[in-house]
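[Archive record]
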Amino acid sequence: MNFLDELSDVQREAVINYQHPSLIIAGAGSGKTRVLTYRIAYLLQQNVSPQQVLALTFTNKAAREMKERIGALIGANITRRLWMGTFHAVFARILRSEAERLGYPPSFTIYDSADSRNLVKICIKELNFDEKIYKPGSVFGRISRAKNNLIRAGEYAGNVEITAADAASRMPRIADIYALYERKCKLAGAMDFDDLLLNTNVLFRDFPEALARYSSLFQYILVDEYQDTNYAQYLIVKKLAQPHHNICVVGDDAQSIYAFRGARIENILNFRNDYPDYREYRLEENYRSTQTIVNAANSLIEKNSRQLRKKCFSRAETGEPINVLSAFTEQEEGFLVAASIFETVYNKRTPYNEIAILYRTNAQSRLFEEALRKNNLPYKIYGGMSFYQRAEVKDLLAYLRLIVNPNDDEAFRRAVQTPSRGIGTTSLEHLQAAASAEGKSMYETFLSLSPAAIGLRTAIAQKLKDFCALIAELASLQFALDAHNLAMEAAKRSGYIAELKETNSMENITRLEYVEELLNSIKEFCDNPDNANPDEENRLITVRQYLENVALLTDMDNEKEEDRNKITLMTAHAAKGLEFSYVYITGMEETLFPSGLAINSVEELEEERRLFYVALTRAKRGVSVSFSKTRYRWGETVSNRPSRFLKEIDANYFNKPVFGTTATNRLPDKKDVPAGHWAPEHKAPVRTGLRPGNAAAPRRTAGFTPGDQPALAAGMRIEHDRFGAGTVARVEGVMNDAKAIVDFDGYGRKILLLKYARIKII
C-alpha cells in the first residue's frame, strides 16, 4: 500500500493534491499513466466512493489497463464500481438511463461507422442525388464533423458558412441528406458514435435536472489525453465539473496531433482560463528515451509558438546520435532503411518487434514493404492494411489484370464497377448466371449473347458494351506501351482519376495518394533495365511482366510467423502512445513531412512539427531519419529538399550533417550498406535467416580477411564476414553490377552485390 514511494517528488504531488483543478503536463515517456492510475487509487484510499470518480480515456485498452493496475493496488472489487471508460462508453451508459427524455428507447442501437455510411448511402439514393458526386464516405465525414461541433441538421441548413463550403465542393444538398439521416436514425431508435457526444450535450442543455444529478454524482473527474478532446467532449466535461472544479486533466500539448479528427489544442492551452484556481504539475523527466533523443526533441518543439513550455530531460545514458540516411532515389531510401535495420538486428541483437518504420502517409508503406520482403525481414502493417490490399490499389490492378486476361472474372467484377457506371449488382448477377450456363467468362458471354438472352436492359447493355470496348482498346496497346504508360492510360480513360479528383475530401485525397504511389511503383519497375525480357527485341517492359512481379511480391502464403516478433510499419499518427527501441522516421522531405497541405498555415505547420516530435519520442535507444533527393510524382521525377524540421534540430545530435553537404546526391558507401545485399529470389525463402537473440554466430574462420573482388563461379565455396560459409549458386551481371546468389550454410540463400561484399574463396 506504500505505492507513493514509487513516485518522483512531482509525481507524488500530482497524486495527493486532489482538492482543486489540476493540470498535469506530461511530457513523452514521463509516466503519465502511472500518475493518473495512482491518483485514482489514492482517492479511493482516502475513502472516496468509487461511484464518485469519473475517469475518461480515449481507448478501451487504456481504461482496461488502468483498472487492472488500480485493482492490483487496492482490490478489484472496488474498481468495478468506478465510472471509468472511453468518452463514448461512459456517455452511452448515461444516455441509456436518460434516453426517453430525448425521444429514444433505452435499448437504442448504436451504429458503427459502416452502418452510418450505409444509411447515408440509402438517404442519397432516396433523394435521387448522384452518388458519384455525393460520395457516402465524404458526406458522412461532413455530418460527423458537424456533430462534433454540436451542429444538428436544422442548424446545419441555416449555417451560411457551412452550406457555402458544401456548394464549393459541388455538394450543395448535404443539409438535406443530414436531415433525412437524422430522421431515419431517430425512427430506427439508433444513435451513431457522434450522437453519443451530441446527445449528451443536448441532455445537459435541455434537462438541467439531469446535469445536476450527474455533476453532483461525479465529485472527481479525471481526463486522459486532454489535448485530444474535441469541442463536444470539452463542453460535457466542463459542465460536469462546474459545481466543484475537482477536475484533473493529463496531457501534453506537444503531442496534440489530431486536429483533422476535431481535436482542439485550445482545450489544454486554455485550461488555466477555465479554472483560474488551478494547480499545474509538470512531468518533465523522460523515463523512456536517451538524453540525445530527449534533447533533440526539445530543440525541435521549442520552435512552436502555441505551447505550454517545459524542458524535458532524461537521466538515461547519452545514447547514440540520430542516424541520417540520405538517398538519391526513393527506392534507395527503402534499401538503406532495410540495410540499417539488418545491421541493428545483427549487431545489437534487437528483436524485430522493437523496431518501427514511421511515415507521414500510408501510401509510403509500399517502398518499405518491398525492401523488407526482398531482404527476408518480417514485418506487419499496424493500424492499416498492406499497400497492395488497399481498395484503390486493387481497383487499378483489376484493370491491368483484365487487359492481360479479359476472362478474369474477379477483375471484371471489380473494374466494371470502378468508377461507378450505373451497372448494379443485379445486372452483374444476371451476367454471371448466363456465363455459368454458357461455361464462359463474363466478358466472353456478354460479347457472344444478346442483352435479352442475358436479361439486361438496353441502357445497362450499352454501358457494358462501352466498358468491354475500353478493355479491348487498352488490350490492343499492351505490346505498344510499357507498363507505366499503359497503366496511366487505364487510370485516365476509365475515369478513375477524374472521379477521385472531383471532390477535395480527405477520403479522396488519401485514395489518390495510393493510386499515385501505385503508378510510381510501376514507373520504377519500367525504369529498371534488369526487368526487361532479354528475349524480346525492343526490351519493352510490359504490363504482364509487372503483374507477374506484383503477384510474387504479394504472395504471403509463406509468412507463417506470428505478428509478435515483426518489424512494425505505421504512420506517425498511429505511433502515438507506443514505444520501440529503434525508430526509423522516413520521407523527411519538404511537402511530404511537413505535408504540402500544411506549409501555408502556421497552425497546421505547428501540428506537423508536433507530429514529428511524437515520432521522435517513440524511440528508447535510437532514431534514424531518412530522406530522398528525388521522388516520383505521377510518373515524373521531382527534386526534394530535406525537411525544415531536420534543420530545426540542433546539428550536434546527428551523426553527420544533413544540410550543406553533397550527402544527398551520392550513392551508398560501405558504412551505409551492409557487406552484401541479402535479398532472396522471388520464391519462398529459406526460413533459416537471422533471428535476433538466438541467431548463431556466422561460421567464419579465425583471422578472417576478405580478399579483393574475386572471380566467382557456380559451385565455389566462399566465406562471408557475416554469413559465414556458403556455396555459390550462380553469378549474374558484370563489373559494378555483378552479384552472386549464394546458399549460406547458416542463413539460407542471399544475393550479394559484389562491389560491396566482403568475401573470400575457400
